[in-house]
């Protein structure tokens, strides 16, 4: 199992011959040494990525890591922003060689292979976003997104994941994710894993969404049933 986890940490950095072709979501399915079925999902947005592994049967969260990525030829380099299995690697850069086809992605020298889930479409909200504000009692409160404490949400065409972390302290605060759809101003999340509370797995949450001046305005009820109005800005 330890060897498996080490390989998954490495999977936080992918590369390919054409950067645009990696954008979207990829999925790998494995069996742990104790027979538990595991699922790993990688989401690539422009310049940012996240990899998460969870129990495919129960949704129990196991680990996540991610950060920024850049590409040169078939070598992908990642600057780690969060890593639950190895927080000491936050701030470090790792590089790996990969091989890609239209439907598969593989790290050269390993047997681990991922299948493409989507290529970023339809993806009305595809990209990497940072929490940049909230509305409370009718008043908008904006926050500085350049601080070490971040809440990021990455979306492909069909998958989403949010992550709360601090790049300075290397602390991980929580994450959750699954599939999503957008239709007629409604954004619906279907939760497949949730690090803070496994009882949320299987829930579907509907929110109103609107893009204003490039920002994503997100309102409705949280997973706890509390009213929220959030503002998210695309990462640069």
- Mean pLDDT metric: 90
The tally of beta strands, per DSSP, is 17
Assign a percent range to the helix content.
under 10%
Spatial shape: globular
CATH class of the largest domain: Mainly Beta
CATH topology category name of the largest domain: Lipocalin
Radius of gyration: 17 Å
Individual helix count:
1
Please outline the major beta sheet.
8 strands, antiparallel, barrel
**Low-pLDDT sequence parts:** 1-17
Mind telling me which CATH architecture of the largest domain this is?
A: Beta Barrel
Order of helices and strands: HEEEEEEEEEEEEEEEEE
* Percent of sequence in beta strands: over 45%
The span between the termini is 37 Å
How many individual domains? 2
Q: Which structural category do the helix and sheet elements fall into?
A: mainly beta
If strands are numbered along the chain, what order do they take across the biggest sheet? Answer: 1-2-3-4-5-6-7-8
Please provide a written account of the structure.
The chain is mainly β and 236 residues long. The chain folds into two domains: 2-118, Lipocalin (Beta Barrel); 127-234, Uncharacterised protein PF14869 family, DUF4488 (Lipocalin, Beta Barrel), CATH 2.40.128. The chain is built from one helix and 17 strands. It has one helix at 2-10, and strands at 24-31, 37-45, 48-55, 61-72, 75-83, 93-100, 104-107, 113-118, 127-136, 139-142, 149-155, 159-166, 171-183, 186-194, 204-212, 215-221, 227-234. The strands form two sheets. An eight-stranded antiparallel β-barrel has the order 1-2-3-4-5-6-7-8. Strands 9-11-12-13-14-15-16-17 form an eight-stranded antiparallel β-barrel. A hairpin with a 4-residue loop joins strand 12 (159-166) and strand 13.
């Amino acid at each position: 199992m330890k060897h498996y986890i080490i390989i998954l940490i490495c999977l936080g950095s992918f590369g390919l011959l054409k950067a645009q072709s990696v954008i979207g979501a990829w999925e790998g399915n494995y069996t742990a040494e104790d027979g538990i079925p595991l699922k790993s999902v990688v989401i690539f947005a422009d310049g940012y990525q996240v990899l998460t592994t969870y129990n495919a049967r129960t949704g129990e969260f196991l680990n996540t890591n991610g950060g920024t990525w850049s590409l040169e030829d078939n070598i992908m380099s990642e600057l780690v922003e969060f890593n639950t299995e190895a927080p000491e690697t936050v701030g470090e850069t790792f590089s790996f060689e990969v091989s890609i086809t239209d439907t598969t992605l593989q790290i050269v020298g390993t047997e681990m292979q991922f299948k493409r889930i989507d290529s970023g479409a339809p993806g009305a909200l595809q990209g990497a976003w940072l929490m940049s504000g909230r509305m409370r009692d009718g008043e908008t409160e904006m926050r500085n997104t350049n601080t070490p404490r971040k809440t990021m949400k990455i979306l492909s065409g069909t998958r989403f994941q949010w992550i709360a972390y601090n790049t300075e302290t290397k602390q991980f605060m929580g994450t959750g994710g699954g599939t999503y759809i957008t239709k007629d101003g409604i954004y619906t999340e279907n939760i497949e894993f949730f690090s803070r509370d496994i009882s949320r797995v299987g829930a579907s949450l509907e929110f109103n969404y609107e893009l204003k001046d490039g920002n994503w305005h997100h309102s409705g009820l949280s997973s706890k049933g509390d009213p929220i109005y959030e503002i998210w800005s695309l990462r640069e």
